[in-house]
Every structure is written in structure tokens, then in C-alpha cells.
Design a protein that fits this description.
Helix content: 40-55%
Number of domains: 1
Distance between the termini: 12 Å
Number of helices: 14
Number of strands: 8
CATH superfamily: Metal-dependent hydrolases
CATH topology: TIM Barrel
Strand order of the largest sheet: 1-2-3-4-5-6-7-8
């Protein structure tokens, strides 16, 4: 049986596999940096977290036209569907898109919406977009991103999020941006507790109207944070291979996934930036199932939790749950 899967935490630009990066680079007359693509052409090369960020930017720089975003979105949804994926929320950064291409974000989003529609028609997978601001671009930039997200005419946008430098740009700086997004009808998530301590998660829960937290693994060191997550019914978007590849944990035995499950926190399993970590959503499900010896039914519970914690409308959630 192919286990039905749902994903809530993947960065659209970070889903580009090496073969597609090469195709887009050729199409857009871009020369990829030497050593960026691994020798076996299955991943990207980097030495540490800062080098990872450089590699990520180099890959994202191949995006120059809306057609590129169409190809990236359709490719990811298609490949996810072929391995059991039924629902994917993808993070999209308007700032990165406009800086790389000089083309208004609205045009890219139209192409993304078309890819989502085509993937649904051809592979029966539902795709949605979380518009994501970048912390280190500052609070004012995040407010502009939130304001513009509410003006977009594409139905795929369901959420607002925040990524980037956790240490130097804490959650409370972005209260206004989140207020704009939330009052405009967008559901909210935030990257927190990944490279910064759990206190950043507490601050996010104090100041931002979030329903989920991306990563959140540093809560393992804070019983108070775990209790708060449970009390506020905030789900965690867990990305095991990403956490290990970026050095947060040496291996799965050290990962706090089971600690969170035992505590009663709702968690989803996600790929984050899959080709950078030599993974896919299907691989993440397999990794977790093999390590913890979970049954297929237990794995389906992760999918159910993801759908229930998703930012999809209630009708879509019910339709997805009937597929499981």
C-alpha cells in the first residue's frame, strides 16, 4: 500500500532538483557555479549552514520568468503525487522572486496557480501557497509582503509565514505584518526554534497569531514551551532530514520527534528543501516509519494531523480526509 501523504513545510525555490536547475539555467543563459551540483547529480554541495544558504541562492537564481515557477511547481506536485502525496503547502517568497527576475510577483503567482490547477487535474493532488516574508529584509518589508498578499487574485494563497535569520530578527518585530495578514484572512505560521532557542517560540506565541510553527525542535529543551504548544494547540512542522543535514542533530536517535509525539503535540512530517538534503516527502515518511517501527496506520495519522493542521478550507480538508 502506498501511504497517502500531506506536507506543510517545503520551500518552493528549495524543491528544484538538479536536473531542473540545469534545464532552467540553460533556458535562461545562466552558468551554475562549479561544484554546486553533486557528482552524482542528485543533490547540491555545501559545507555548512552559511554555505547552504549560498547554494540555495544560487539554485533560486535560475528563476527568471513565470514559466520557470510553473515548471518548478508542477514538477514538485507531480512527483509528490506519484509517491502518494495528496496535499502540499509550499512557501513562496515574493521578495526573492522579484529580486531574481525583476518581474512583479503577481505574474509569478498566476503561473504557480496554473501549475497547481494542472497538477490537480492530472494527478489529483491539492497544492496551496504560504506567502513568506524574509526576516533579515526587515519589518517594513514583511508588512509590504503581507499587504500585497491580500491583493493577489489567486485562490492558492492560504497562509502567511516568516523565514530567515531567527537570531537577529525576533518574532515581536513582525507583529504588524502578521496582524495585516491575519485580519485579511490568511492563516499564519512562523519559522522558530530551529537555530534559535525555544524562547523565540514563546515570543512567537506571545506576539503572533500563529497556528503552526516551522521546525520548533528546540522546544525539546523547554518543558514550558511544550506545555504552551499543547495549551494553544499549535502544531509543529517537523523536517527530520533537514535538521540532521544542517547539524542540529547527529542522527535520528537524537531527534526529538518522539518526545513531541509522546507529549501530545500535533506534528507533520516534511521535506523542507528536499534536493538539498537528499530526500523527498516519501523518503521522510519512510525514514520515520523505519526508525520508529510505526505501522502504516500510524503513518496515516501523521497525514491526518497534517490535513487537520493545514490552512486549507474545511471543504477541502473533508475531501482530503476521505482519501485516507
Amino acid at each position: 500500500m502506498t501511504i497517502k501523504k500531506a506536507e506543510l513545510h517545503t520551500h518552493l525555490e528549495g524543491t528544484i532538483p538538479p536536473y531542473l536547475a540545469r534545464d532552467l539555467a540553460n533556458r535562461n543563459n545562466i552558468i551554475l557555479p562549479e561544484g554546486l551540483i553533486s557528482v552524482d547529480s542528485k543533490s547540491y554541495g555545501y559545507d555548512d549552514f552559511l554555505d547552504f544558504l549560498k547554494a540555495y541562492d544560487s539554485v533560486a537564481a535560475v528563476i527568471k520568468h513565470p514559466r520557470d515557477y510553473y515548471d518548478i511547481t508542477f514538477d514538485y506536485l507531480k512527483n509528490s503525487a506519484l509517491t502518494g502525496g495528496i496535499y502540499v503547502e509550499m512557501m513562496y517568497s515574493p521578495d526573492h522572486a522579484e529580486q531574481a527576475s525583476g518581474i512583479p510577483s503577481s505574474e509569478h503567482l498566476q503561473a504557480i496557480q496554473q501549475a497547481i490547477d494542472d497538477a490537480k487535474a492530472q494527478f489529483n493532488i491539492v497544492g496551496r501557497i504560504i506567502v513568506t516574508a524574509v526576516r533579515h529584509f526587515g519589518a517594513e518589508s514583511a508588512e509590504k509582503v503581507a499587504t500585497q498578499a491580500l491583493k493577489e487574485k489567486v485562490p492558492c494563497i492560504v497562509g502567511f509565514g516568516l523565514g530567515g535569520d531567527e537570531f537577529n530578527f525576533p518574532p515581536k518585530l513582525f507583529q504588524k505584518a502578521y496582524q495585516i495578514a491575519s485580519e485579511g484572512g490568511l492563516h499564519c505560521t512562523v519559522h522558530a526554534g530551529e537555530f534559535a532557542p525555544a524562547c523565540g517560540m514563546m515570543e512567537a506565541m506571545d506576539y503572533l497569531p500563529v497556528k503552526r510553527i516551522g521546525h520548533g525542535v528546540m522546544a525539546m529543551h523547554s518543558p514550558e514551551t511544550i506545555a504552551r504548544l499543547i495549551d494553544m494547540d499549535i502544531a509543529l512542522e517537523i523536517c527530520p532530514s533537514s535538521n540532521i543535514a544542517l547539524g542540529l542533530f547527529p542522527d535520528m536517535p537524537a531527534h526529538p520527534l518522539m518526545q513531541f509525539i509522546d507529549a501530545g503535540i500535533n506534528v507533520s512530517i516534511n521535506s523542507d528543501d528536499p534536493p538539498f538534503f537528499r530526500t523527498t516527502l516519501a523518503n521522510e515518511y519512510e525514514l520515520v516509519q523505519d526508525f520508529y517501527k510505526f505501522s502504516d496506520k500510524q503513518m496515516l495519522d501523521f497525514t491526518k494531523m497534517a490535513i487537520k493542521s493545514s490552512f486549507a478550507d474545511e471543504k477541502t480538508k473533508k475531501e482530503l480526509l476521505t482519501l485516507i
